[in-house]
Write a structure and sequence with these properties.
There is one protein chain. This protein is an alpha/beta fold and about 425 residues long. It has 2 domains: about 10-65 and about 310-414, Aspartate Aminotransferase, domain 1 (Alpha-Beta Complex); about 75-305, Aspartate Aminotransferase, domain 2 (3-Layer(aba) Sandwich). It contains 13 helices and 17 strands. The protein has helices spanning about 10-20, 50-55, 65-75, 85-100, 110-130, 150-155, 160, 180-185, 210-220, 290-305, 310-330, 355-365, 385-414; strands at about 30-35, 40, 45-50, 105-110, 135-140, 170-175, 190-195, 200, 205, 225-230, 255, 265-270, 335-340, 345-350, 365, 370, 375-380. The strands form 5 sheets. The chain has a 4-stranded mixed beta sheet. A 4-stranded parallel beta sheet has the order 6-5-7-10, with helices on both faces. Strands 13-14-17-16 form a 4-stranded antiparallel beta sheet, with helices on one face. It is globular and about 65 Å long.
């Protein structure tokens, strides 16, 4: 490992407060080194990372294949305009389409950007085919699609939306996993249905196979686009290349990002059929999206993530994690309710607010976060070992024991 100067944590906190906008709140530790499923902070403390950059580091930190690809490409060509052919971009598009049942790809820098592109593409396709007035996107309760204005308008969370109104018109919310409510809310203005195949920020809620198949049938019969947002739940996270593959459905568009680049920022909107050819010259664009560096990293990452043997191991380890969490629920029945999720995307649902829990978990050497108020989100890297999972479960138990003790003490004081 190359020796680097370790920053002073207190000085970093002071400078962050002075120079960084406070939208991320107070950040108390500085992570300076990562390898596999472990990271170390500037004070030398080591952690098991069961957050993985909120699903970015599916291959763990500094995977050798990704690092090598970045080094090779950085010595050759970092960036050129999308006005030129980019060999790495074309190869990545071919691999994604071949593995995911899609026809063409459009690259950007993030999940929110490719979600925006999906919204634009759905509306443009519908306008070209049916004329004006058919522009509504049906989205769902507990959804999170990003923080740009289009993605925000498609997002359900009041906490995320508060203060930014008026939102963009043309979105209607139906109840997640409820086809009857979909039918009630659907009218002639609907041009697309967009959902997270597994809701991440909404509390680790998977769409049922029945729900996905029902949406696919309705979109086909009513000439609407089906958009499966796989930004967090895709790229092997659930034990399949994409989570929609569990239901054996094929969407019309698929936004992917986060883990696609193995740690570098890249997103892709994948589309098939007539949707793949809707954007024409000048109708959409990006400066940095799909440049040689990020595509080289993504080629290295997807070569591993799409291997059948690798994905089978993800499924097996997901079952192991589920078993650990069920045991933890049995040990802490007063504060733990249930497990939700799929593969290595799981949520431990608490009976109490969970927002105060992650700092306690950090004290015990475990990185995770809380979502949807009461859900402890667990996204360990897909390269996690059985021993790592067992160690993580032990750390989680220790943290929950302390957390329960603080709740009991608070109850006594009240």
């Amino acid at each position: 490992m190359t020796q680097q100067t370790v920053p002073d944590t207190a000085l970093l906190r002071e400078k962050a407060g002075r120079y960084l906008m406070p939208n991320y709140g107070t950040r108390d530790i500085a992570l300076v080194h990562g390898e596999g499923v472990r990271v170390r902070d500037s004070d030398g403390k080591e952690y098991l990372d069961f957050l993985a950059g909120i699903g970015v580091n599916n291959l763990g930190h500094c995977h050798p294949a990704v690092v090598a690809a970045i080094k090779r490409q950085a010595e050759t060509l970092l960036h050129v305009s999308n006005g030129f052919l980019i060999a790495q971009q074309i190869e990545l598009a071919e691999r994604l389409c071949a593995n995911l049942g899609m026809d063409k790809a459009l690259f950007a820098n993030s999940g929110a950007e490719v979600t925006e592109a999906a919204i634009k593409l759905a509306r443009l396709w519908s306008r070209n085919k049916f004329g004006e007035g058919r522009h509504t996107i049906m989205v769902f309760t507990n959804s999170f699609h990003g923080r740009t204005f289009g993605a925000l308008s498609a997002t359900y969370s009041p906490k995320v939306r508060e203060g930014f109104d008026p939102y963009l018109p043309g979105f209607v919310f139906a109840e997640f996993n409820n086809l009857a409510d979909v039918d009630e809310k659907w009218d002639d203005s609907v041009c697309a249905v967009m959902l997270e195949t597994v809701q991440g920020e909404g509390g680790i809620r998977p769409a049922t196979a029945e729900f996905l198949r029902g949406l696919r049938q309705r979109c086909t019969e009513r000439s609407a686009a089906l958009v499966c947002d796989e930004v967090q739940c895709g790229m092997g996270r659930t034990g399949r290349r994409m989570a929609y593959q569990w239901a054996e459905v094929l969407p019309d568009m698929v936004p992917v990002a986060k883990a696609l680049g193995g740690g570098v920022p890249i997103g892709a909107l994948l589309a098939r059929g007539e949707f793949a050819d809707t954007f024409q010259k000048g109708s959409h664009g990006t400066t940095f999206g799909g440049n040689p560096l990020v595509c080289a990293a993504a080629l290295a990452a997807t070569e591993i993530l799409f291997e059948e043997g690798f994905l089978a191991e993800v499924g097996r380890k997901g079952c192991s994690l589920w078993g650990h969490l069920e045991g933890i629920i049995a040990d802490f029945p007063d504060i733990c309710a249930e497990v939700r999720g799929a593969g290595l995307m799981q949520g431990l649902v608490l009976k109490v607010p969970a927002l105060a829990f992650p700092p306690i978990a950090r004290k015990h050497g475990l990185l995770l976060n809380a979502t949807a108020e009461t859900v402890v989100r667990l996204l360990p890297p897909l390269v996690v070992s059985d021993e790592d999972l067992e160690e993580g479960a032990d750390k989680l138990r220790a943290a929950l024991s302390e957390f329960q003790g603080t709740l009991e003490e608070k109850a006594k004081e009240e």
